[in-house]
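tool=predict chain=A
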Amino acid sequence: MAGFRGTYTVLVTPFTPDGGAIDVAALRRLVDDQIEGGVHGLVPLGSTGEFLSLSQDERDLVIETVIGQARGRVPVLIGTGAEYTPDAVRYAREAEAAGADGVMIIPPYYAVPTEAELVAHYGAIAGKIGIPIMIYNNPAAANVDMLPSTVARLSEIDNVRYIKESTLDVTRVRDIIRLCGDRMTVFAGVLGYESFFLGAEGWVAVCSNVAPRISADLFEAACDRNDPAEARAIHQRMVDLLWWVGGPRYVAGTKAALKLIGRGVGPPRAPRLPLPEADIPVLAGVLERLGLTLAGAD
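tool=predict ok
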């Protein structure tokens, strides 16, 4: 498969109404909605997918369902982060065996690893799989910040070829490209629009769970058509949605929005709570202004 680029949706994990099990039918529908909406790739079992709240059997079910439903129409990168390096190796090997096109791996999120430990961690995983690795820099969640100089060292590992850069410092995109050259392709996390104009070749987006078409359009306007005015107009249309699916609301807000447009995926799992009822009308207004049809609307 050609190199990864574009809008990749980090999928929510649909649960049954009581939160007790994976809603497989809803997950299959979500995969189809994403692909039909124009996204360029899928990332199950990321933070938005509540991967830390899933059992091993549930992880396996999500992987099997997403890869099977995608049927090779778009790349599927599986989130395989773990605190213990042998667990991360095992998860990555399981993803590859299941047919994943790549893996996305956050650093060990409690260990506060040094640069040498990061190199050893990712090197151990890379040595056991043959598919590309997307490293994931999210200091707020992982408790470690992979600076561009560290990313440059990691890019020397053969199949570490992508990074999801999720700080709020857009200059990281510039500096990673400067230090790594063609050894590393940058995907944005939070700052998709801003990062495209500094050389990012994609973004791993939360908002595309709810609005896949406009999320794909933003990438295509900026990176395929190189049209800053069009990209800016698209970004302005969707900026309110970005607020609702970012920060501490990212899982609850996304799941609430999907329910409002008739694509219910169940509640978040504890300790997360559903979006407060007082926020629902405001979110509904955001979706309506974006041109999304609310469930039950004429």
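The longest helix spans residues 228-244. The chain is about 45% helix and 10% strand.
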